[in-house]
Specification:
Keywords: Membrane, Transmembrane, Transmembrane helix. InterPro entries: EamA_dom (IPR000620), EmrE-like (IPR037185). The protein is mainly α and about 325 residues long. The chain has one domain. Helix 2 runs antiparallel to helix 3 and helix 5 packs across helix 7. The chain is globular.
């Protein structure tokens, strides 16, 4: 029995509609990722202003307290609504959760400590070496295999970092090592996150991150504490809210699109960092910083592309 000609468009319309929905979802995820970079860049600008008024440790503590006040009640309310009690505090890998929390807190503190001395664009560009470090750490800790193409991209990215830092020249700032160490700390946290992937809900990971950060920083805070005024408290709240919203938008972005598609768009933050740094602080990135940031971004784009190819099983 032949299919009537009027049925053919309907039969072919289903895959087309599904393809259209998938493309729209990927686009939505991409736009959300770009939006998150605006929040992160704004948070970094506020952090730089606040780091000129208070010790870096205290600034990071304010960020984490705000983060905790936003995340923990939300996670608890979600648990209670499900009738599951306080399941958000129960982790299958508590040791790894604590280790991840240490890595995140160290990353935030080191990056914040660099901001009184470096322009936001320069500190951000150096920090974006973290995907390369994650790739390197994934070999011994996750048993992943990295081909020569991704190693080549990593070396290119490192050359971009060297252009920004320029060690051995009069332009070198010792503070440039701080965001590099911060990127290393974040890379460790990211590898731990991959290692415990699927073991705990996202809410549990966020709550552990908040609690570990607050606990660690609160132990050190009395040694550096400076009484904040109303302006500093306001800046601290704004910083924490902007950063938390940025992370929340990233989570939404990954729900809509593949990581290999949207991850490279995180490099748009380099653009916002340069623009906001100029508008707020009057700092103009020099040609070396712009060139280095561009090389880092291109390396990240290519690494993400190779991840996508590898995931598809083509190479």
């Amino acid at each position: 029995m032949t299919v009537p000609s009027t049925a053919r468009p309907a039969a072919s319309a289903a895959p087309a509609a599904a393809s259209g929905r998938a493309a729209a979802s990927q686009l939505r995820g991409t736009l959300l990722m770009v939006a998150s970079t605006v929040f992160f860049a704004c948070s970094d600008v506020v952090t730089k202003e606040l780091a000129g008024r208070l010790p870096a440790m205290e600034v990071t503590w304010l960020r984490y307290v705000t983060f905790g006040l936003m995340v923990i009640p939300f996670a608890l309310a979600k648990d209670l609504a499900r009738g599951g009690g306080v399941a958000v505090f129960r982790s299958r890998r508590p040791g790894l959760q604590v280790l991840r929390g240490f890595g995140m807190a160290g990353s935030a503190m080191l990056f914040t400590a660099s901001l009184p001395y470096l322009p936001v664009a320069e500190a951000t560009a150096i920090y974006f070496v973290s995907p390369i470090l994650i790739m390197a750490l994934s070999i011994p800790f996750l048993g992943e295999t990295v081909g020569w193409r991704r190693w080549s991209a990593a070396l290119v990215g490192l050359s971009g970092v060297l252009l920004v830092i320029r060690p051995g020249t009069s332009a070198f700032e010792a503070a440039a090592v701080l965001p590099l160490l911060g990127a290393s700390s974040w890379a460790m946290a990211a590898v731990v996150t991959r290692k415990m992937s699927g073991r705990d809900p996202a809410e549990t990971t966020l709550v552990y991150s908040a609690l570990v950060g607050i606990a660690v920083l609160s132990l050190i805070l009395p040694f550096v504490f400076v009484m904040p005024g109303p302006a500093e408290i306001g800046f601290g709240l704004a910083m924490g809210v902007l950063s938390t919203l940025g992370h929340w938008i990233v989570i939404l972005a990954y729900r809509h699109a593949d990581a290999s598609v949207i991850a490279p768009f995180s490099y748009v933050q380099l653009l916002w960092a340069g623009i906001l740094g100029y508008l707020v602080f009057g700092s103009v990135p020099d040609a070396w910083t712009v060139a280095g940031a561009a090389i880092i971004a291109l390396s990240g784009f290519y690494t993400a592309y190779r991840e996508r190819v590898r995931a598809a099983g083509r190479a």
